[in-house]
Amino acid sequence: MITGHFNAFQFCFIKKIPVYFLFFSVLWLVPSLSKENTYFYRPLNTVIIDAGHGGKDNGCSGKTTKEKDVALSIALKVGKYISENVPGVKVLYTRNDDTFVELHERASFANRNGGDLFISIHCNSAPETASVHGTETYIMGPEKAGDNLEVAFRENSVIALEKNYKDNYDGFNLQDPQSTIIFSLFQFSHMAESQIFASMIDYQFKNRANRNSRGVKPANFLVLYKTNMPSVLIETGFLSNKTEEKYLASDDGQAYIASAIYRAFKEYKTDWDGRGKNGEKKPKK
After folding, report:
1. DSSP state, residue 57
2. In 3D, which of 205, 153, 207 has the Cα closest to residue 180?
3. SS3 for 285?
4. Rounded Cα distance, 138 and 198, in Å
5. Which of 94, 96, 118 minimizes the C-alpha distance to 197?
6. Are 200 and 270 in contact (CB under 8 A)?
7. Is the separation of the CB atoms in 81 and 264 below 8 Å?
């Protein structure tokens, strides 16, 4: 992970600026900045599992199901599978009960505890199109489509429940869907690893859990914005779809989803460790 002195280069939220111009402008800066940092392999020791929403924040809802409950149940199952089957990895949760945790505090918790990987678990909703179903796996990045923007805007809207949210999110305008997050150099440095892990999750959803995958996508999620590690946000399915809601509310359905995420984690860790043994350099924490 990149060391803390990159804070001076941290970017803020900027409204209606061409994202891709800024995206590639910052990428141009990264090689020169990396010269002053030492890179070396370090093991993947700590995974942060983030159950979306909680407490006074229900998230989206189906006929009988709340996102906060499904997300927590799946998150705890993922953590249990990792703890029981991957020795040497510490699993930490941003919440392990029905508690409201502010988005910025989730990232701060991950950073304070030296997280090496951040997994945020959610459920989706498209009430106007009840036939829509399937999983989506997101990484931090500029949106390429309106649907991605809508999902990010919905997930980000929970900051309205926080006190003084504008102070915590650098003046982010919740009322403007076009208000754009300009990434920190932390996230640029971890984007490639986030993409690798997200692709592994997507593969497991499609080929092992037999879910309809809607792909790996970039979007501007506040919960991922300040995490200083590879990070993904997983939409496990649509509670607005009657069949998928029933699946996600069931113990078997949650177990299939959780085991797919666990298998992807195990594959990613094996790949990470293998690249380290072969002499590839990883960013210093």
Report:
1. B
2. 153
3. coil
4. 7
5. 118
6. no
7. no
Q: Give the Cβ contact number of residue 276 at 10 Å.
A: 16
Per the listing, tokens 């199109």 go with 129
**CA–CA distance, 160 with 221 (Å, rounded to integer):** 15
Q: Phi, psi (5° rounding) for residue 36?
A: -90, 10
Which of 12, 101, 48, 91 is CA-nearest to residue 227?
48
Tokens of 202: 């997507």
* Cα separation values, 85 from 20, 44, 259, Å: 41, 15, 11
Yes or no: say if 192 and 229 are a contact pair by the CB < 8 Å rule: no
pLDDT in tens, 190-233: 888 999 999 999 999 999 999 999 999 988 787 887 788 999 99
Cα–Cα distance measured from residue 264 to residue 270, given in angstroms and rounded to the nearest whole number: 10
Is beta strand 231-238 parallel, antiparallel or unpaired with respect to 135-140?
A: antiparallel
What is residue 276's predicted lDDT score, i.e. its pLDDT?
Answer: 77
Q: What is the pLDDT of residue 221?
A: 80
- Averaged confidence pLDDT in the chain: 79
Instruction: Please name the amino acid found at residue 57.
Output: D
Residue 185, both tokens? 């150099």
The torsion angles phi and psi of 111, rounded to 5 degrees, stand at: -70, -45
Comparison of pLDDT for 73 and 284, the residue scoring more: 73
Q: Which residues contact 27 (CB under 8 A, 6 or more apart)?
A: 188
What is 48-277's CATH number, 2.50.20.10, 3.40.630.40, 3.40.190.10, 3.40.640.10? Answer: 3.40.630.40
Token pair recorded at residue 189? 């440095």
Q: How many residues does the chain have?
A: 285
User: How many Å apart are CA 277 and CA 285, to the nearest integer?
Assistant: 18
